Amino acid sequence: MTSLDSVLDKDGVRLTVDDAVATVTLTNPAKRNAQSPALWRALTEAGRALPGSVRVVVLRGEGKSFSAGLDRQAFTPEGFDGEPSFLDMARGPEAELDATIAEYQEAFTWWRRNDIVSIAAVQGHAIGAGFQLALACDLRIVAEDVQFAMRETSLGLVPDLTGTHPLVNLVGYARALEICATGRFVHAKEAERTGLANLVVPAGELDAAARDLAGALLAAPRDAVVETKALLSGAVSRGYEEQRVAERAAQGRRLRDLAGITD
């Protein structure tokens, strides 16, 4: 292993790069890695700062909790220093509110880019925005003490940080509705059984398991992984015949590339 190169370290987010593997770490364990608009902007910046050599991104949180969700200070009249409170934003024009939420969502969208594979290493609480951040990644390795919960509905809100689409795809509509509407906890065994978690490990083995998975993902040629990810992610919206066509086109590109044929 080479020494880690620190690319970004601000507002509760640290990005380090080690050759083809980048690690994004939430760095505010004293607040259980609670999230804020500043943290979301830092996550967006981390995605934009990834070197082109990166193939795998591991997302982790320092301390006992992955992320306890949105910092409740957002709902106080004061809000965060230098930020409008959520209450003030709600009183503004609807178009501005929509644009602001869209900006926040950008922190959760880049994890599924076709040129990378993202792994969330999740321990302890992953609540609300924390759950949605874990869902933003392609894969999830969880510790035995993990506690997922979607608490937005319990607060009179809805999950709006891109988590509803992957949740429904992973566990189905009925279970996703039940999880969101009740706000209950999903623990490790259920997460693995329903597809929320790819792997469950003891808490002390979480980082090592993420490193092992990252290494396994690097074994195949990059272009083949990129094409395969695009095929699988697109299969959700394609019909059977459309997927057959997409498979043929992707394989044709790979064969031509292996043969050294350029268009």
Notable traits:
single chain, 263 residues, alpha/beta, seven-stranded mixed sheet, three-stranded mixed sheet, 10 helices, 43% helix, globular
Task: Provide a compact summary of the structure.
43% of the residues lie in helices and 17% in strands. The chain is an alpha/beta fold. Helix 1 crosses helix 3, helix 5 (164-171) crosses helix 6 (173-182) and helix 9 runs antiparallel to helix 10 (240-258).
Summarize the structure in words.
- Helix content is 43%, strand content 17%.
- It is built from ten helices and ten strands.
- The chain has helices spanning 37-49, 86-91, 94-109, 129-136, 164-171, 173-182, 188-194, 206-217, 222-234, 240-258, and strands spanning 5-10, 13-18, 21-26, 56-61, 117-122, 125-127, 139-143, 147-149, 186-187, 199-201.
- Helix 5 packs across helix 6.
- The longest helix has 19 residues, at 240-258.
- The model has no long low-confidence stretch (mean pLDDT 94).
Strand ordering within the main sheet: 1-2-3-4-5-7-10
Main pleated-sheet profile: 7 strands, mixed
Radius of gyration: 19 Å
| Whole-number mean pLDDT | 94
Proportion in β-strands: 15-25%
Class based on secondary structure composition and strand pairing: alpha/beta
Question: Could you list the spans in which at least 5 consecutive residues all have pLDDT below 50?
Answer: none
Instruction: Write down the oligomeric state.
Output: single chain
How many helices in DSSP terms?
Answer: 10
Helix-strand sequence: EEEHEHHEEHEEHHEHEHHH
Shape estimate:
globular
* Secondary structure: helix percent: 40-55%
